[in-house]
Write a structure and sequence with these properties.
Strand content of chain A: under 5%
Strand content of chain B: under 5%
Oligomer: heterodimer
Distance between the termini of chain A: 39 Å
Structural class of chain A: mainly alpha
Number of strands of chain B: 3
Largest sheet of chain A: none
Structural class of chain B: mainly alpha
Order of helices and strands of chain B: HHHHHHEEEHHHHH
Largest sheet of chain B: 3 strands, antiparallel
Number of helices of chain B: 11
Strand order of the largest sheet of chain B: 1-3-2
Shape of chain B: globular
Radius of gyration of chain B: 17 Å
Number of domains of chain A: 1
Order of helices and strands of chain A: HHH
Distance between the termini of chain B: 28 Å
Largest interface: A-B, 42 and 49 residues
Number of strands of chain A: 0
């Protein structure tokens, strides 16, 4: 629905890979957790947590891609809205995890 | 293992409806995890919010999702939604759970009635000459096979609903799409499929502060169940998009109204 800049298109390709990596981490971690026991089980849990952490970074990076798109298209108001969202999310994360 | 498989299956259903109707799926997952599987409500909400992000990621990045979602409108609505989510986290402790449920149930019932009342209303401008404005867009309408445009109307109302959806997201552990989609479609002039995809994109950002908040409070403690739900949702989202282009908008609206009415009854009478 909107024109996409080359940089944003590359970023989105990277995000699709990240989403695939997320699914791989979650799937592998889940299968491993059923099959292995002992110290190796920690690896399975770590993989699942890694997958979940990757999952929550995707929306943030997607907003960055929108910022790149809108900035490249000269639509500054929408680009600044993207910056506003990123700042709000950063503030929330810092506030909640401090 | 059986529990994970069960949660994964529920995730498939939630993901399908999420992609089809722009709902995060939390509205179905939270009762299932809480009532059917006996998880504490906070843990159920935390897992639900993670799956909302999964649906949003899929819609934002898939070719089908990007075709329908209005990225500019989503970005504008994400600002009040993110602020609302923050406000929701702050007031979580001050509102009685029963009152939260009643507000949510009452709103869902009202919105269902509006959706039914405007069942045959189409938010499209026929032909290619109509001005769609800064936030509008053009889509190929699967119902008619023609390119149509739409203009976003009553933006302040949409911003207010996005803010309220953010609050609801944090308070109830749902995405808030149950408010955003009907508002965009019935009041703001956005076609149903665009409203659904745009809502799904917004929900990822709306749910993010909630996930961080629930994690910091120690409620995201069941990673295997969360992983199962996310994998189910990702598979279901793909199915949802396949279905959405094959059914009439009218059917999507009826399905949405039925779900809203069901949710209203659940929150007003059974919780």
């Amino acid at each position: 629905m909107t024109t996409t800049s080359t940089a944003a298109a590359r970023l989105r390709s990277g995000l699709r890979l990240l989403l695939a990596a997320t699914s791989a981490c979650l799937g592998l971690g889940l299968v491993m957790s059923f099959l292995v026991a002992g110290p190796v089980a920690h690896v399975a849990t770590s993989m699942v947590w890694t997958g979940l952490a990757l999952l929550v970074t995707v929306p943030i990076l997607n907003v960055v891609a929108v910022f790149v798109d809108e900035w490249a298209a000269g639509r500054r108001a929408f680009a600044w809205a993207a910056v506003g969202v990123i700042l709000l999310l950063a503030a929330t994360t810092i506030y909640r995890l401090r | 293992m059986l529990t994970v498989v069960l949660v994964m299956s529920a995730g498939v259903g939630a993901g399908s409806l999420g992609a089809m109707l722009g709902l995060g799926g939390g509205i179905f997952l939270v009762p299932l995890l809480n009532i059917a599987l006996g998880l504490p409500i906070e843990n159920a909400m935390a897992i639900s919010l993670v799956t909302v992000i999964a649906t949003s990621n899929f819609v934002s990045l898939s070719t089908a999702g990007r075709k329908w979602a209005n990225a500019r409108l989503a970005m504008v609505l994400q600002v009040p939604a993110a602020v609302g989510a923050l406000v929701g986290l702050e007031i979580l402790a001050f509102i009685e759970p029963r009152m939260r449920e009643q507000i949510f149930g009452g709103t869902a019932l009202l919105v269902a009635a509006v959706m039914i009342a405007r069942l045959d209303y189409r938010n499209v401008l026929q032909g290619e000459t109509g001005d769609v404005g800064a936030l509008g867009g053009r889509i190929e309408d699967p119902d008619t096979g023609q390119e149509v445009g739409y203009r976003v109307k009553r933006l302040p109302f949409g911003l207010g609903v996005a803010f309220f959806a953010g609050i609801i997201s944090s308070l109830a552990g749902v995405g808030g799409g149950i408010l955003v989609v009907p508002a965009l479609n019935s009041w703001c002039g956005v076609p149903m499929r665009v409203a659904a995809a745009t809502s799904a994109v917004i929900l990822g950002i709306t749910a993010l502060p909630g996930v961080v908040g629930y994690y910091s409070l120690g409620y995201l403690t069941m990673p295997l169940l969360a992983a199962g739900a996310v994998l189910g949702v990702l598979a279901g989202s793909r199915a949802g998009f396949w279905i959405t282009t094959r059914v009439k908008v009218r059917s999507l609206k009826i399905l949405m109204a039925v779900i809203l009415a069901g949710v209203a009854v659940e929150y007003l009478y059974f919780k």
